Amino acid sequence: MSVLGVGVDLVENVRIQHSLDRFGQRFLRRIFTAGEIEYCQSMKFPTRHFAARFAAKEAVSKAFGTGIGSAMGWKDIDVRRKPSGEPFVVLEGGAKDLSEERGVTAVWITLSHTEHHAMAMIVVESDSA
Fold it and tell me: Do 51 and 113 meet the contact criterion of CB atoms below 8 Å apart?
């Protein structure tokens, strides 16, 4: 196995809060999966968790070198949690197709957030890189 790509993204939480205030459910439904919305809204500071997942989606698209667009959409990247709390990524739609095409064997994720910022780092491994 070798590293196919690495992606990092940093988001100001206020940017996500501004989108939530301005567009509400329309913003949430466009960017996040139902599971992500449910999880984030269950937390004491939902915006921080939404921002971390937004950063993760951006970081995944950077690791693949495509950005969000025709190759993969926002909801093609689903950030979930194991019972232990460890985050993991599930790829659907265009992101899944691209990962299969490139022989992806693993997508590693780490998330972090503070009062003001959220970040994500992604490492994508492949047999064919």
Answer: yes
pTM exceeds cut of 0.90: yes
Which residue in the list 18, 49, 57, 62 is annotated as catalytic? 62
> Is 113 a known active-site residue?
yes
Domain range enclosing 12: 2-126
Phi, psi of 99 (to 5 degrees): -65, -40
Q: Which of 57, 113, 116, 117 is catalytic?
A: 113
What mean pLDDT is predicted for residues 78-97?
96
CATH code at 97? 3.90.470.20
Count of domains forming the chain = 1
pLDDT band at 26 (very low <50, low <70, confident <90, very high): very high
